[in-house]
């Protein structure tokens, strides 16, 4: 109640008038009442009433916050967070090595950034995740929907159809092997049409459309509350050309990062961004580093870098709060993102009907 | 979309006038400002500014479509998804041919046959759909002056002798291939930007740029300071316009 007038979210002109009239705290405003206020500063009674309602809303918002309830600032103990994190699922990638280094898969409520040279598989992984997020819970998935924001235009519908078909087939095989009732029931809703109709696709042509879309995202997510994954494919592309003012770019990117963090936390969804690589020219040699500068490196919680080693694709976990840095190899097959099998196994199972590069069923889905 | 005037974003007249005093006339300017700056500029309270932001964002945000709708739309005309190259193994590897609606890049050391391949694709695009073509015109932007019309006629006559049996048909085909010779980066960019109207008026179904690298390498010496940034600026700007053209008209580039 002792809140200063200058910190209230009123129009600047109004605030200036209140300061000139000598009001200092919110309590004083509430005590004066709308008629007194309108006479003192010379505004109409309706405007005074509106201003007082805003003040009252703000002050009432303060009270429950200090009592530790849920609001803009959430206070809870580490134990509650631990319980939450343990029951929270993660989105599997169908490549068990990658899931292992990520600690189970792509974590919800965190921002994961995937950097890599062109052609290494970033968009493929995004499409795989958009399908995997919809896997029903009895198979170990999070049973959510996906939002795909595309800025580069590299989204191919036919490829998603291939990946989704492979995923459905994989789940069918598991269901047949384990013969449980809830598996069969889940499979009824887990069909190709269902998967495709729950991936919401937005094509943003430049950074203004991207900014506008991210502003509208919270509203969209509250309408579609089952969304558990937001993919922005190519966050670097619209920001890399046509920007003379680099400080504006940094500011916009930071604002974007803040909003994405809020979205990830409020809606319990994972945010996945893909970034490009740029060359940093050093003293004697040049190295490939993620684009968009140093300050953008702080935006993502988890950073994965994809790179080539001759003909083998490798993924390195570069930054993570809970897992250690490590590198694994992966494969992109016609069915999507998969593990690399050790050579002996591939040769012996080449002739079987099952795709030998699919995740082995003995590992199964958790629980 | 970004250059959309605020007037058309359904903001009130007086708000637009007030904003134009601060030189904020397009959606792009509006969305680039932070919340506090917007409050100062519009003179509105925090909640009002948030509502305004939503209104402006809605005016320029892209439309949502589910992937299922996209798939249905594609399956309605399957023949327009690819331009077959008539080289069967290449078509198999490319899953049908050169995809419509996206950019395809052909690179190789000199002399391998890139320009020949482009000339052949131009012939294929002018063929009717029943023969695997796109039945449309072709825009060929040539930066190396390597396009030879005689070779074009030769390829058409040898490859499809039954179709191009008369001179008239050959003339008709060469008439629908529009050649533009551009020799500098600026003119290439200007040409690309002006293509939208030409594509509609001439019913163009294929866009070829031969080649991007030659004109860029001629003008931008990467050893000089600052040239690298300018070069990538030019390339990304050109790329985004080409992507837009490819997607909007569903043509291969």
From TrEMBL, chain A:
Stored CDD domains: Rad51C
Origin superkingdom: Eukaryota
GO BP terms: meiotic DNA recombinase assembly; reciprocal meiotic recombination
SUPFAM superfamilies noted in UniProt: P-loop containing nucleoside triphosphate hydrolases
Protein localization: Cytoplasm, Perinuclear region; Mitochondrion; Nucleus
Major subcellular site: cytoplasm
A GO-annotated cellular component: Rad51B-Rad51C-Rad51D-XRCC2 complex
Domain named RecA family profile: residues: 87-277
Keywords tagged on the record: ATP-binding, Cytoplasm, DNA damage, DNA recombination, DNA repair, DNA-binding, Mitochondrion, Nucleotide-binding, Nucleus, Phosphoprotein
InterPro entries xrefs: DNA_recomb/repair_RecA-like, HR_Repair_Mediator, P-loop_NTPase, Rad51_C, RecA_ATP-bd
Spans annotated as Disordered: 339-367
An example molecular function term from Gene Ontology annotations: ATP-dependent DNA damage sensor activity
Family statement drawn from the similarity comment of this UniProt entry: Belongs to the RecA family. RAD51 subfamily.
Protein name: DNA repair protein RAD51 homolog 3
From TrEMBL, chain B:
Subunit structure: Part of the BCDX2 complex consisting of RAD51B, RAD51C, RAD51D and XRCC2; the complex has a ring-like structure arranged into a flat disc around a central channel. The BCDX2 subcomplex RAD51B:RAD51C interacts with RAD51. Interacts with SWSAP1; involved in homologous recombination repair. Interacts with HELQ.
Entry keyword annotation includes DNA repair: yes
Any single GO BP term: double-strand break repair via homologous recombination
Keyword Zinc: no
Xref: Pfam families: HHH_XRCC3_RpoA, Rad51
Name by which UniProt lists this protein: DNA repair protein RAD51 homolog 2
Example of a GO MF term: double-stranded DNA binding
Organism, as annotated: Anthoscopus minutus
Domain RecA family profile intervals: 79-253
UniProt KW keywords: ATP-binding, DNA damage, DNA recombination, DNA repair, DNA-binding, Nucleotide-binding, Nucleus
């Amino acid at each position: 109640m002792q809140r200063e007038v200058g910190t209230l979210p009123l129009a600047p002109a109004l605030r200036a008038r209140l300061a000139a009239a000598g009001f200092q705290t919110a309590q004083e405003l509430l005590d004066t009442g709308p008629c007194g206020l309108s006479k003192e500063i010379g505004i109409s009674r309706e405007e005074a009433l509106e201003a007082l309602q805003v003040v009252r809303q703000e002050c009432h918002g303060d009270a429950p916050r200090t009592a530790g309830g849920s609001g803009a600032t959430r206070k809870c103990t580490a134990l509650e967070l631990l319980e939450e994190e343990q029951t929270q699922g993660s989105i599997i990638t169908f490549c068990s090595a990658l899931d292992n280094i990520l600690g189970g898969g792509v974590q919800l409520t965190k921002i994961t950034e995937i950097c890599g040279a062109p052609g290494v598989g970033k968009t493929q992984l995004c499409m795989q995740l958009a399908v995997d997020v919809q896997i029903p819970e009895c198979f170990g998935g999070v049973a959510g929907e996906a939002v795909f924001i595309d800025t580069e235009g590299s989204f191919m519908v036919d490829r998603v159809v291939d990946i989704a078909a492979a995923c459905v087939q994989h789940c069918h095989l598991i269901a047949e092997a384990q013969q449980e009732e809830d598996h069969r029931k889940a499979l009824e809703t887990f069909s190709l049409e269902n998967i495709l109709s729950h991936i919401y696709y937005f094509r943003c042509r430049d950074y203004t459309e991207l900014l506008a879309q991210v502003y509208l995202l919270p509203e969209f997510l509250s309408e579609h509350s089952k969304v558990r994954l937001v993919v922005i494919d190519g966050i670097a592309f619209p920001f890399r050309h046509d920007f003379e003012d680099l400080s504006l770019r940094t500011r916009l990117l930071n604002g974007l990062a803040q909003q994405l963090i809020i979205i990830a936390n409020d809606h319990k969804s994972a945010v996945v961004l893909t970034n490009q690589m740029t060359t940093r020219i050093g003293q004697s040699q040049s190295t490939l580093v993620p684009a968009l500068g140093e300050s953008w490196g702080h935006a993502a919680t988890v950073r994965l870098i994809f790179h080539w080693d001759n003909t083998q694709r490798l993924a390195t976990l570069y930054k993570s709060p809970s897992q250690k840095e490590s590198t694994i190899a992966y494969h992109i097959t016609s069915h999507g993102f998969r593990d690399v099998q050790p050579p002996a196994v591939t040769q012996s199972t080449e002739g079987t009907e099952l795709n030998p590069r699919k995740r082995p069923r003995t590992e199964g889905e958790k629980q | 979309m970004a250059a959309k005037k605020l007037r058309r974003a359904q903001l009130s007249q007086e708000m637009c006038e007030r904003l134009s005093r601060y030189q904020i006339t397009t959606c792009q300017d509006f969305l680039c400002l932070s919340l506090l700056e917007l409050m100062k500029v519009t003179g509105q309270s925090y909640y009002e500014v948030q509502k305004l932001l939503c209104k402006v964002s809605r005016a320029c945000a892209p439309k949502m479509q589910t992937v299922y709708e996209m798939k249905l739309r594609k399956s309605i005309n399957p023949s327009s998804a690819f331009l077959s190259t008539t080289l069967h193994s290449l078509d198999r590897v490319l899953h049908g041919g050169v995809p419509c609606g996206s950019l395809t890049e052909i690179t190789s050391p000199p002399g391998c046959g890139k320009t020949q391949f482009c000339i052949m694709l131009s012939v294929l695009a002018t063929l009717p759909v029943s023969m695997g073509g796109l039945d449309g015109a072709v825009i060929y932007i040539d930066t190396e002056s390597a396009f030879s019309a005689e070779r074009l006629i030769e390829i058409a006559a040898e490859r499809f002798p039954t179709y191009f049996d008369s001179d008239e048909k050959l003339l008709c085909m060469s008439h629908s291939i529009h050649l533009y010779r551009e020799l500098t980066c600026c003119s290439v960019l200007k040409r690309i930007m002006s293509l939208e109207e030409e594509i509609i008026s001439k019913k163009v179904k294929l866009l070829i740029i031969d080649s991007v690298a030659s004109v860029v390498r001629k003008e931008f010496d990467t050893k000089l300071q600052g040239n690298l940034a300018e070069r990538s600026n030019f390339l990304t700007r050109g790329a985004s316009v080409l992507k837009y053209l490819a997607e909007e008209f569903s043509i291969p580039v």
